[in-house]
Give the backbone structure.
Amino acid sequence: MDLENLYRDVIVDHNRSPRNFRKIADATSVQEGFNPLCGDKLTVYLKLDGDRISDLSFEGSGCAISVASASLMSEALKGKTVVQAEQLFEKMHALLTIEDQSRDLEPLGKLAALSGVREYPSRVKCATLCWHTLKNALEHPEIQPVSTE
Amino acid sequence: MNARHDSLHKSVAMPAFDVLRWRRDFPIFKQMAHGKPLVYLDNAATSQKPQAVINAVADYYERYNSNVHRGVHHLSELATAAYEGAREKLRRFINAGSLKEIIFVRGTTEAINLVAQSYGRSRFQAGDEIMLSEMEHHSNIVPWQLLREQTGVVLKIIPINDAGDLQPGAYEKLFSPRTRLVAVTHISNALGTINPVKAMIAHAHQQRVPVLLDGAQAVPHLPVDVSDLDCDFYAFSSHKMFGPTGIGVLYAKEKLLADMPPYQGGGEMIRTVRFSGSTWNELPHKFEAGTPDIAGAIGLGAAVDYLENIGMASIRDYEHSLLEYGTQRLQTVAGVKLVGTARHKAGVLSFVMDDIHPHDIGTIVDQQGVAIRTGHHCAMPVMEHFHIPATARASLAFYNTREDIDALVQALGKAREVFR
């Protein structure tokens, strides 16, 4: 294990300048994700246009892994369909939790940069938090009141 | 930089304390972490165990494993003598007046729950007030919230200031005719603050209010004398004081325990059982339902022997010098801000570092062999006070060295490098 495999340039970059780090005023679903173990907290804003994710953004505070993961997720899913998002959720979950040397990383694009997290079991939840929050937003299209503390 | 460190070494005079000698008693330090010597700075979470404690536990299982207080056979007599012998060691260690005042429990958390459910639930009524502080560990908050749901008691919170001290004067002002109990920590696990508990107890007693102290972070690090403090309840855990996990102690004044109903029912805690009703065993057994953690108690007794041999005053003084060194060294690291700068502090260095999240710091220094804790440290109200989600925390024990601190400082440089 070496740190460069965890904190790859893509991750450091997305942590420093997270993409789609904003509210969506006319979101169709807003959900909060919270990891009580470490205090990571993020809000996912989802705007569905029929079956298509027309906009996706997030806000919150967390470690570099959780911020970069959410930033990469928002980039990857904009313009995709709900079914594609669900497929990518499964792929990311497998990437972060199951060792598989023969895995084809190509379809994951930049998201593959998170593969190093798997070697750090205590950090896997940091990377999956945004994905679980997104799943919640897809399954529960409602505007959850967001605490602002 | 080097010149400054040299002067630092000179300015903080180290008392004669042979840390390397004591360190050799801990087999865990023989191993490496990620290919580097293990630097263990997470003692506020749990402490390492000396060989003497490990041997005492193994010896019980190998030579005289048996249940206590009931057998007439040889092994049971040996086990009972060792278990009750451990109780006497604990009594002496904290200077309690009587063996009846030493209750073996699972740990600090269970000790506080016992007081809440037995003492609190049988006496407190809706509107009665319990005073806590803003720096409490969750284990000295949530038991009282459960009691609040059951009885309608009101929780009053002593605020802290930005140094991590209780706000001067705030404590005294919170007393009212309805105050029934003060429950505060002796030393804060998240900030290191040593509270002025003796004066606080004296003040509470003037108002005829009893005081519970959470001593989990105090007993392993300084001499504790419950008779001198005159506290009414004192709770602490074995695993933070170099003993086994799963056991701890509730000290309580005998006159309070005598009137308190049992916390749990079962074997051991009864005198007679009939279906029409049962009668309770004498103290302390009334509060020890079921087969206790016999091996744990014996191991804890061995930890007490071990600590007494070193001397708690020596440990306190050594750790204080190490804290001063660590404080000065951390302040030289660019971007590091200490959280918790009380005047009277134990060996806890909680900090944040620029915009690097504590969890990233924790992972990076771990890769350099340095174990620290990151997160809210089960003290979320403290994090809220400082408007931070988490801190990185290095917490000291008597087996830590200046080299351990230096390794942490060096590892923090690596964190800076990763996020340059």
Remarks:
- The beta strands of chain A are 29-35, 40-49, 52-61.
- The helical segments of chain A are 3-6, 9-16, 64-77, 82-97, 124-139.
